[in-house]
């Protein structure tokens, strides 16, 4: 289905009856990211699976959004569809939006897996790569060096940057840049709903240390770690994830 939210055409899917359960995918994902879970839970809940702006079949913003803008989008989406006290299952980037909206949305329950939102501590080598790229890029604007350096700048960006960044459009690169530089830990105490954190032991995108920090800062929370799993633990152990989610969501 397509809905217009503040001038953007947003794709979402919905089925079932009962309590609202909303899926919010990670960076580079779409409604397909939660297809297995969507099909499982639609028999017990009113499920909503959203392509966030700039992903899947939803329109990109006209300019790079902040997480605040994505939060405002989610609030408007819920108001437009009369979704109140939703259950949320979110992954990675989707968790950023959920955390940011903690003061604005009255959640029923949350399952956050591989949750992003803690600004990473970077090694010196990271900053060397970033600032070398910025310096070379600056040189490329000089009249005599520009045409010679431009292909080298692009090649360096592809080598030094993450695949998420290099594969994104200019607008979405701006979104990702804004997102990773914002630390959301100050919003974690505003989460009042019972929350389940599910993490992959080998997650390098959002390290397990982030999950342990979130466990300390969220009031009503539990952390489950899947041994040998990565940032996509919820897919690598889909059956286990569903069994745990069933117990958590259907319990009192």
What does this molecule look like?
This protein has an 8-stranded mixed sheet with strand order 1-2-4-3-5-6-7-8, with helices on both faces. The radius of gyration is 19 Å and the shape is globular. Helix 4 runs antiparallel to helix 5. Helix 3 links the parallel strand 5 and strand 6. The protein has helices spanning 35-41, 67-80, 93-100, 124-140, 146-160, 163-167, 170-180, 208-217, 233-236, 238-250, and strands spanning 2-5, 8-15, 20-24, 46-50, 87-91, 109-113, 195-200, 221-226. The chain is 41% helix and 17% strand. The two termini are 32 Å apart.
Sequence-ordered SSE layout with sheet pairings:
Layout lengths: L1 E4 L2 E8 L4 E5 L10 H7 L4 E5 L16 H14 L6 E5 L1 H8 L8 E5 L10 H17 L5 H15 L2 H5 L2 H11 L14 E6 L7 H10 L3 E6 L6 H4 L1 H13 L2
Helix pairs in contact: 2-3, 4-5
